[in-house]
Amino acid sequence: MKVCRYALLLSMGLLLLSTGASAQSARLKAANKQFENMSYLSAVRAYEDFLRLNKRSDPMETREALVNLGYSYRRLEDSKNAERIYSELVNNYNDLPSEVYLYYAQSLAKNRKYRDSQKMYAKYGEMQTADLRGRKFTVSYMDMNRFYKDSSSYHIDYLPINSRQADFSPMYYQQGLVFVSARNESGVVKRVFNFNQSPFLDLYFQPDTALFHVNAEPTAGAAVLGGGELNKAEADGSVATNEGTLTKSELFSRTLNTKYHEGPMTFFKDQKRIIFTRNNDDRGKSGKSDDGVRKLKLYYAEQDDSGKWVNIEELPFNSKDYSCGHPALSPDDSRLYFVSDMPGGYGGTDLYVVDYNDGQWGTPVNLGRELNTEGNEMFPFVAADNTLYFSSDGHEGLGGLDVFMAEMKGDIAVNGVENLGAPINSERDDFGFITDTLRTSGYFSSNRKRGASDDNIYSFRRLCKAMNIYVYDAKTKEPIESADVRIVKGGVNQELQQTGMDGSIRLCMDSNTEYEFRGIKEGYAANSVRFSTLTQSTNPSMGISIYLDRNENTSIVKGTIRKEVDLQPADGVRVTLRNEKDKTEETVTTGPDGGYEFDMDPNSNYTITTEKDRYTRDQNQIKTPKRGEVVENNVGIYGEGDVFKLDNIYYDLDKFFIRPDAAKELERVVALLKKYPEMTVELRSHTDSRASNFYNEKLSERRARAAYDYLVRRGISPMRLVAKGYGETDPVNDCVDGEECTEDEYQLNRRTEFKILAVQ
After folding, report:
1. What mean pLDDT do residues 615-632 have?
2. Among 697, 730, 731, 758, which residue's Cα sits nearest to residue 358?
3. Fewest CB within a 10 Å sphere: which of 103, 292, 312, 440?
């Protein structure tokens, strides 16, 4: 039932090998017709009939039928029959297309025959040297252990929302999940997809995920996924389940669901706006590409006060000639990740990203060679920490689509791409992965065998691999209470924790990660211990000790970096401490708490610099600290796009001159612009709702210009300023046309803000 996830591939070239219509038998011609129409289920039946009834036919016709039959089985996700057909081809024919060896290798991997798959990948690599998959998979399948390193940490459950049709691509929504399904719970006859005669896809909603966990713990007859295997499961990897426990789910929206495919989807933070995938719904020829296929497009919709999804419109970078789908928004809604087979990519489908700002879409950008391969990258999801999860059959994996993760800084995967390994991944297709920030729980889709079912949704929990960290006095060996322990993971500061009465803290460790634990206590010299989980430990818990030497002469500088716009801690800030005496430097990168700490020599002066892309750069001097002193150095940073309300920039009714109280507030802007000489800002003025729209627009423009003129008179270059009036279009309260308000309420809308356009 692989309808939507492979619908993106429909524009790929087919392997149809024709010897000419005049030379074809009637049965082969009929089979080829079904194949050309991408009716793969019908094509399989026709090719099998041809091969069974035409055993003495032309060898080239038999070869042609086998090549197309193998491809049809592959598209239907029948890896066992695909392996059978490709084996017959490789054993009986020479001079085969290189894709036959690639598809044979992929089918073997899906059937867990990795050594045989390795040989076929090697053969493919010899024929297609530019395609890195041949070389990468040949090497990868020499040692499969790396795919099972963290498998014992996971517990996986089959969800009761699954039906006998395809169910996949869950997404968090309110207290539940929205997901994609081919089920039909309305009782109305549904159209079927010609590809494999399965129903078209719709969006469904399960309102309460708490129902999944009522009986989540495994019982005597339950199957638990661990160690990369399915314990108490059938040999083929299927899991026993009671299909009668199906939890009723509801259609998500009758306005979003149509007669074509819908899904996958993503939601904005406010949960009142959605971006979703749908077949091109333009009617007639305008809805089809030049090859007669309705490609996938991305659509936007918003929810009205009644809860109905309205104002459906397609995104501006869609095309009828290529597909765009599988959307995923960044945590701050400023970027949309999606999948497309548009021209210029690296493989079948690639990952793209496009900026979103004030309702305007930018130009899509391919995420590049490190993330995209000659294969297919699909189903992106961005967690709250900006980690990008996606599925791929082009990166080394266990077979089919595997789930991967990449820590993103802008468009760059800073630590490369990592396979999540078993049991999240299997030899089959694993995709549609969503999770919390720490990857302690979440959901994903897979077509690992389940009898009558196909694509199904699973939940997972990642069990804690505990680490106990003890902080001791180096001389007395006594535990140190209330010592700070800074956790540094992969070179980035994580949370700051404090030891208890026994001098210890406890945390859960990630696999394949380099750690540093830094102990800090006033009156002691700081000390660090490094630890790596790149090698697997069989111990259920581990422990390390940090010993601190008393040193009353050691000074410490510490602080928190915050965003000025909302005073929230700023992560990803590079903090550098420079010793002006010996010119040495230390650098740390802030984590979610925005914090940092350094030791200081009390005989030196220091400079602290804070830097982050698209934020202001700050530099502070620290004069020679006192012995044993703890210096607090907190920093506020300003970012591009930040909008600040100037609380006292108000205007008299129908006036635009700067009042004395407003002038005092504007002096703060003057000081800010003088501190950051590369900063440019937009002055945004607003009016209340009284008077006409046209009049208010002109009045707000005059007010913005008045603030602009004031700043210019105070020595700010006009090149750094933009003045714009918004009239009454953006009120801060409900004082709109037709509403009676107090004078104080009206005055709140007569305001000026400034927006940072650039910081350098």
Report:
1. 88
2. 730
3. 292
- Give the pLDDT confidence score for residue 760 in this predicted structure: 77
d(CA 251, CA 20): 48
Going by the DSSP 8-state scheme, the letter that residue 504 receives in this structure is E
- Classify residue 228 by burial, with Cβ atoms within 10 Å: 0-12, 13-18, 19+: buried
**249-253, long-range: CB within 8 Å, 24+ apart, which pairs?**
249/161, 249/179, 249/181, 249/185, 249/204, 249/205, 249/206, 250/204, 250/205, 250/207, 251/185, 251/186, 251/202, 251/203, 251/204, 251/205, 252/178, 252/202, 252/203, 252/204, 252/205, 253/203, 253/308, 253/309
Around 45, how many Cα atoms within 13 Å sit in the side-chain half-sphere?
Answer: 6
- Burial class of residue 476, CB neighbours in 10 A (0-12, 13-18, 19+): exposed
pLDDT band, residue 214 (cuts 50/70/90): low
Cα–Cα distance measured from residue 688 to residue 684, given in angstroms and rounded to the nearest whole number: 14
Residue 717: what pLDDT?
95
351: β partners = 339
CA distance to 10, 65, 80, 521, per residue, from 13 (Å): 8, 17, 23, 65
pLDDT above 90 (res 666): no
236: CB partners within 8 A, 6+ apart: 449
Q: Give the pair of three-digit tokens for residue 726.
A: 């918004």
Specify the residue for token string 């077949």: 279
User: Residue 543 is encoded by which pair of tokens?
Assistant: 């422990």
Highest mean pLDDT among 461-465, 521-525, 732-736: 521-525
Name every residue whose Cβ is closer than 8 Å to that of residue 27 and which is 6 or more positions away in sequence. Answer: 46, 49, 50, 53, 54
Structure letter (DSSP) for residue 209: G
Q: How far apart are CA 591 and CA 488, in angstroms?
A: 9
Structure tokens at 65: 């039928």
Separation of alpha carbons 157 and 607, rounded Å = 53
Count of all residues that appear for the chain in the document:
760
Q: How many CB atoms lie within 10 A of CB 296?
A: 25
Residue 385 has a CB neighbour count (10 Å cut-off) of 16
Top-confidence residue, 182 or 617 = 617
> Whole-angstrom Cα distance, residue 573 to residue 127?
47
DSSP letter for 663, please: H
- Mean pLDDT on 217-245: 33
Number of other residues whose CB lies within 10 A of the CB of residue 141: 22
Report d(CA 753, CA 175) in Å as an integer.
36
DSSP codes of every residue in 112-171: T-HHHHHHHHHHHHHH-TT-HHHHHHHHHTT--GGGGTTGGGEEEEE-TT--SS-EEEEE
- Other Cβ atoms less than 10 A from the Cβ of 114: the count is 20
- Per-residue pLDDT band for 285 (boundaries 50, 70, 90) equals low
58: Cβ–Cβ under 8 A, 6 or more apart, which residues? 19, 23
Residue 484 corresponds to which tokens in the numbers above?
A: 């700070």
Question: In terms of pLDDT, which residue wins out, 391 or 651?
Answer: 391
Helix or strand (DSSP H, E) at 664:
helix 660-675
Locus of tokens 């350094």: 598
Question: 10-65, pLDDT tens digit by residue?
Answer: 333 344 444 444 445 888 999 999 998 888 999 999 999 999 887 777 888 999 99
Count of C-beta atoms within a 10 Å radius of residue 59? 10
Q: Give the whole-number percent of the chain exceeding pLDDT 90.
A: 54
